[in-house]
Amino acid sequence: MLRTDEILSTIEMLHAEHLDVRTVTLALNVDDCAAPHVDHMCRKMYQKIVSRSGGLVEVCDRVAASYGIPVTNRRLAISPVATILAGHGHEAAVQVARTLEAAALNIRVDFVGGFTALVHKGTTPADAVVMNSLPEVLAKTDRVCASVNLASRKAGINMDAVREMGHVILRIAEATADRKGCGCTKLCVFANIPEDNPFMAGAYMGVGEPEATINIGVSGPGVVGSALRRRLAMAGKITLGDLAEEIKITSFRITRVGELIGREVATELGLPFGVVDLSLASTPAVGDSVGDILKTMGIRQIGAPGSTAALAMLTDAVKKGGVFASSSVGGLSGAFIPVSEDAVMADAVGARHLVLEKLEAMTSVCSVGLDMVAVPGDTPPETIAAIIADEMAIGVINNKTTGARLIPVPGAHAGDFVDFGGLFGSTPVIDVRNAGASETFIRFGGRIPAPIQSLTN
Hints:
Shape: globular
Largest sheet: 12 strands, mixed
Distance between the termini: 36 Å
Structural class: alpha/beta
Order of helices and strands: HEHHEHHEHEEHEEHHEHHEHHEHEEEHE
Helix content: 40-55%
CATH topology: Anaerobic Ribonucleotide-triphosphate Reductase Large Chain
CATH architecture: Alpha-Beta Barrel
CATH class: Alpha Beta
């Protein structure tokens, strides 16, 4: 049972520590909007989104005000557009994206996810339409987010699609060169994409989900950091086990707050409640940083030996605390390390304490992967594909979700500073060593088979 008095006490105690509900995401199935003519399909989609989601922002604001906890983002995630684009072409994909943008503006959500293709075992013509339309779609919309699942534990890695996405990402950067390649900030490629993820850019509604549902993304790096500092200030010997326990307790409290708000929003909208995604998601704000937590745990320079172990402990403790607090934990739950959105991580890249290879190692134990990483604009497409392939391999072999949100910044070189604005933050461009040395490997194409551990039937 959720005890309101207990939760209100927690809210009061943590009010000044960047505790928020990072996102309330309404997931909506739009498969029934398919139609032979794109105009008809877009009308159906627009009407369904507005009629089913129109009250989301108002309800979120009312519930947030009643508890004094801000809901930072209100978002929409739809079922993969590749499904309804079957039989349609490039122009239809762009028109659907414009319809999603118009609907998002009407209902006042921050982002809409689900411009998605699932190609981990092969690419259909509709998937190809989605992938090839991404440069134009992401350049001509502000709120539409996209994702492509390139690999899975059961299927292995679709290296043809990985190679293609290396080229697509560069074309997106070129299409938004006047904005420093910011179109790439709205695209994430995945291995083992979760079907109930409320966080952008990878949010979409998977097969097997209800017609509509409410998913919550709760964050609180500042809360966890403050709790650890209070624990370290206490007299006596403190061990890493003690710190892990403090993280678990704090994560438990955060999850309870998020679930209460999520269930109230779902009830008012007359929708089922889905999951709480307890992910420590950084923002550029001072004090709201996963990197800062790692420093509090004794890693003075992010990227130094021990960084991966500290992040592993943090991620595991967050998950344990969240699972104990709720029977509906899902999504990506754990700890994000988005470079440009985390001021401490960005500083570590600028000081060259954190290099691409160490960052990749840390992604083996975090929630997602190489997130919001700016790379030189002249990075070859095969090198971008190879970086993605490495990240997909970590996910497939370790049976975890991994992703890559890489931003080739046109005209920028390693060490240059770029500012993407707002939630996307700012960062130095990371050095990509040995660029071009993986071309032959990537050009082989085909599919890297699933690992032997996948044979669990």
